[in-house]
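Support request from a user on the community tier.

User writes: "When I paste my structure tokens into the form, the page sometimes reloads and wipes my input. The last time it worked, I copied everything first. Here is what I submitted, just in case something in the input itself triggers the reload:"
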């Protein structure tokens, strides 16, 4: 009897075990909970551990020429990130197409974390202009490093003393005020257009080959105003040759203390468009590797030497994690997707 009962008990236990295993497979309970790890938790512990990354030097692609603002910012950031990431970071400049060549190479790089790309606001404009097929969707955001607002700037002896006087005049004299920009479809052209869209005003947009030549033209009295960044006019404002009437952003700029926002001065609240910079990796880069890079670059952005560089350069330091930066890229793409066609600049 005892032997018979023992056999029946063993058989029942086997059936129960088989049913339990079948239920787990059908419902996905165990697999969903720990990624298919065995119940002893050993695989879970391993997957939770930090990846063995990086083991060698990292490449930071810069889509613009050496010596420019983006290049200088990338080099200062890389220097700080070498300390936080623990490996050397090599800057590689990939120029052409207003940034398009570098964006394409960065998007197509091997998604192993060893190729990081510094992207700029042009990532959200160039594809709407028909200059590249690459969009923010081809990348995984790591961290935002910078944002610079537009600063409406005129000559120091201009007849407008305030931003309200300036905007009232522009609205009363459509197409008369010459507003310099850094080229058709450039960020400063689009920023000026955003002000027009918000106010119904009309500028006479005058394109130049970059913000520098536009500022030079303003100094020479060839145009009436520029909507470029605080960093690009700060030296001349400090010397008394130019004056900034308003900052086109939700808050004043540390680079130009004492200058109020356009909304504070006039009540006008246009879409805040300006150049931003950040670092990304190809979209298929593993999340654990991306997290190592995010931690490293976020800490680097708080490095005292890097912060000092940004302050002395007049650059706005806005630091956001991958979620915040991803949201910015998406919102920028949407804004430019509406504005560029309205200006007749979109690809037909």
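"...and here is what came back when it finally went through:"
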């Amino acid at each position: 009897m005892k032997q018979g009962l023992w056999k029946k008990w063993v058989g029942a236990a086997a059936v129960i075990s088989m049913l339990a295993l079948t239920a787990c497979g059908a419902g996905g309970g165990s697999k969903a909970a720990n990624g298919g790890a065995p119940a002893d938790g050993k695989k879970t512990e391993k997957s939770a551990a930090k990846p063995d990354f990086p083991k060698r030097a990292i490449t930071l692609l810069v889509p613009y020429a050496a010596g420019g603002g983006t290049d200088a910012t990338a080099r200062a950031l890389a220097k700080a990130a070498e300390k936080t990431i623990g490996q050397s970071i090599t800057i590689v400049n990939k120029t052409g197409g207003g940034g398009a060549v570098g964006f394409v190479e960065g998007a197509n790089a091997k998604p192993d974390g060893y190729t990081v790309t510094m992207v700029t606001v042009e990532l959200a404009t160039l594809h709407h202009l028909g200059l590249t097929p690459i969009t923010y969707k081809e990348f995984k955001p790591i961290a935002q490093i910078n944002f610079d607002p537009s600063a409406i700037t005129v000559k120091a002896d201009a007849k407008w003393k305030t931003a309200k006087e300036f905007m009232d005049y522009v609205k009363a004299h459509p197409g008369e005020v010459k507003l310099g920009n850094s080229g058709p479809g450039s960020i400063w052209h689009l920023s000026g257009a955003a002000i027009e869209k918000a106010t119904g005003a009309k500028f006479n947009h005058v394109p130049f080959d970059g913000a520098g030549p536009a500022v030079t033209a303003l100094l020479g009295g060839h145009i009436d105003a520029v909507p470029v960044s605080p960093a690009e006019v700060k030296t001349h404002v400090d010397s008394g040759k130019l004056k900034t009437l308003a900052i086109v952003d939700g808050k004043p700029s540390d680079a130009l203390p004492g200058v109020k926002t356009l909304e504070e001065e006039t009540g006008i609240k246009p879409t805040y468009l300006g150049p931003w910079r950040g670092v990304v990796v190809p979209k298929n880069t593993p999340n654990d590797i991306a997290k190592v890079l995010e931690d490293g670059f976020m800490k680097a952005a708080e490095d005292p030497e890097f912060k000092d560089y940004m302050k002395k350069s007049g650059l706005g330091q806005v630091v956001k994690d991958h979620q915040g930066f991803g949201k910015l890229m998406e919102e920028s793409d949407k804004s430019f997707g509406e504005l560029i066609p309205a200006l007749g600049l979109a690809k037909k």
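Agent notes: The reload is a front-end session timeout and is unrelated to the input. The chain has two domains: 58-148+275-342, 150-266. Strands lie at 58-62, 89-93, 115-120, 139-147, 150-155, 178-181, 204-207, 242-248, 276-282. Escalated to web team.
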